[in-house]
Amino acid sequence: MTYAVGIDIGGTKIAGGLVDDEGRIVREAREATPGDAAQIPEVVAQVAQQVRGDAEVAGIGIGAAGFIGADRSTVLFAPNIRWRDEPLAERVCELTDVPVVVENDASAAAWGEFRFGAGADSDDLLLVTVGTGVGGGIVHRGQLFRGGFGVAGEIGHLRVVPDGLLCGCGRRGCLEQYASGSALVREARLRLDEPSAGPLREAVGDDPDRLTGPLVTQLAQDGDPLCDDLLADLGRWLGEGIASLATVLDPTVVAIGGGVAAAGDHLLDPIRRAFEASLPAHGHRPLADLRLATLGNDAGLVGAADLVRSEPV
Ligand SMILES: [Zn+2]
Fold this sequence. Notes:
The protein is α/β, with parallel strands linked by helices. The protein has helices at residues 40-52, 88-96, 105-116, 176-179, 181-190, 198-204, 213-221, 225-249, 265-278, 299-310, and strands spanning 3-9, 13-19, 25-32, 57-64, 67-68, 75-77, 84-86, 100-104, 125-130, 134-140, 143-144, 253-257, 289-292. Helix 3 (105-116) crosses helix 10 (299-310), helix 5 runs antiparallel to helix 8 and helix 8 packs across helix 9 (265-278). The chain is globular, with a radius of gyration of 20 Å. Zinc ion (ZN) is lined by residues 157, 167, 169, 171, 174.
């Protein structure tokens, strides 16, 4: 058995796991993400040491949101952490003395799903993660596709609306402004005054912070038509976006992951409908199999650990 450490750096917590070569997490730890980005390598090293114990490991794989260089070592740009050209792998390696690679979190999750989850029966996979933002990862012919500069797969920033809503990336009309959990909450707020929003208003009460993606999902699952409609809208954006991606990438399997995927068929059915309706030459070509991701929040951590093992530095 070869073990590796997987680390998932999130905006609020740094999660770590000791992962075996069948993708099982055998030991876990987590710490709060420090507000000062300069302290993150130290906390990563601490979490890694906690899960590693005295186990022999192939290395540490780190999944982080942002643009990761082709060297699998440098964070070129992170949206939520003040990192610009941060030599993250080098810093963590100095503190731990084992090989370290850094991967984009959605790419790491795609690899995890490909090896041990929704794509385990396939030779390729497109993973679309729908959470606060929209991310993606591409596996082609059994290999993670990183692109020439390492920053491929940023599907949340496909422009879907000319001169649309301003995005955190600095451009307008990106898919994630219409198809993310944040967009779901924004649209739900806009519809709170509608006559059909009674159940949603009741659930939110006078506390707007209670209007969250999971609440909309819960109400949709309880049969609320407005919340079902909100998810259907989100699914339509995603299905159309995935059709554009499939036009270029031609994947056999597309998996939907991230927090919003908890909505299950309430999201997957409208995605499928929009995907099929938007695909060029529909009816005259094989259709990719759209399914839910299966590893949940662990996908990135498990994938990052497996990448340091299967593609050593
Ligand atoms: Zn954008």
